[in-house]
């Protein structure tokens, strides 16, 4: 009796253990199923991503970044023949999103800029000068829906752009002279901006937008380096000669100006000195006149004496008329009595 009871208890315990294990197994299966369902029903769109949701191969939703209004600004891109996206829902946002499990598929694309760089290529400017250039462009996926229809990845997109960007830049180089191509950056940038807008209009159906395009590097072919160097030397010599000529002209002008100022200064000084001398002579004559008018007879006598003093020396011979006034002066001098010493 006791043995039967023990066996019965063991059997009951085993049945209960089996039931517990079975319950745990079903619980785990249900939890895993729920996780799979939730995982298949959700996806995450990060800040640097754009996404396209396809239902049985047809695009139903396009997820764009906040503030990216490219599709709203270009609604025509949703109605391109062969890729009608007019019924597609455009969602702006990021984070956790929902989809139908096992029916909807999600394709994600980076929202940052992609860079295209061409191989080196020899080009000719308008006057047939040769250069070796490398071109680059930066582009982004502006409409993920069209991009998903048109391309498989960014490499196929770069190859597509290579067939468009390269000829567009080459054509602009061919229509630009060397001086503007090398030195006139403002004009060249205007040409590149116009070319970029032209290309963006051509590639609307691709879902790509070109943000920037430019010549990455410009070098001369080896055969042109020496001739270009000689031209540069000639240009520098021409510039130097022009600077020397301008310097000499400036020097001559300054010397002439200094000479003119010196002559004007000397002339002004001479004029001023002459005026002072004239004023002095006039003042002296006035003084003489006042002095001589006090005793005209004495003045005449004194002038005669001065004339004789200045005109006569030991070798001078005068021939005078006997009635000449000088005789009277001479006679007066000869007959003037001597004054005794001591008186």
Word description of this protein:
The structure is a single chain. α4 (154-174) crosses α6 (185-202). It is rod-shaped and about 200 Å long. Mean pLDDT is 82; it is low at 339-343. β8 (121-124) and β9 form a beta hairpin. The protein is α+β, with helices and mostly antiparallel strands and 343 residues long. The chain has helices at residues 2-41, 70-73, 144-150, 154-174, 178-182, 185-202, 222-294, 296-311, 325-335; strands at 42-45, 49-55, 58-64, 89-92, 95-98, 104-110, 114-117, 121-124, 130-141, 208-219. The strands form 3 sheets. The protein has a 4-stranded mixed β-sheet, with helices on one face.
Gross morphology: rod-shaped
> How many whole angstroms does the radius of gyration measure?
58 Å
- What's the β-strand tally? 10
Q: Give the count of helical stretches.
A: 9
Strand content bin = 15-25%
Contiguous runs where pLDDT drops below 50 for at least 5 residues? 339-343
Q: How many structural domains can be distinguished in the coordinates?
A: 3
Looking at this structure, what is the CATH superfamily of the largest domain? Band 7 domain
Strand arrangement, major sheet:
4-3-2-6
